[in-house]
């Protein structure tokens, strides 16, 4: 399965079924993350039901606090 994430094509040996699974696999905390899938913003409560397909394009932005 190939996905384009933040402009970089990534290949996955096993299909990644949902946005939530992808974030988990990448080690990205869903609670502080915004996701755009094929040009549409995905609400956090829909990460688990938002299915991914081969060739999808995503932008993933994680918010980090600091001072």
Strand content: 25-35%
Please summarize the sheet with the most strands: 5 strands, mixed
Cα radius of gyration in angstroms: 12 Å
- Percent of residues in helices: 10-25%
The coarse silhouette is globular
Order of helices and strands: EEHEEE
Which class do the helix and strand fractions yield? mainly beta
The strand order across the widest sheet is: 2-1-5-3-4
- Total of helices: 1
Structure description:
The longest helix has 8 residues, at 19-26. This protein has one helix and five strands. With 67 residues, the protein is mostly beta strands.
What's this, in brief?
The chain has one helix at 19-26, and strands at residues 2-5, 8-11, 33-37, 40-42, 57-62. The chain is mainly beta. A five-stranded mixed β-sheet has the order 2-1-5-3-4, with no helix packed on it.
Keywords:
67 residues, mainly beta, 5-stranded mixed beta sheet, 5 strands, 12% helix, 33% strand
List the helices and strands and how they pair.
Blueprint: E1 2-5, E2 8-11, H1 19-26, E3 33-37, E4 40-42, E5 57-62
Parallel strand pairs: 1-5
Antiparallel strand pairs: 1-2, 3-4, 3-5
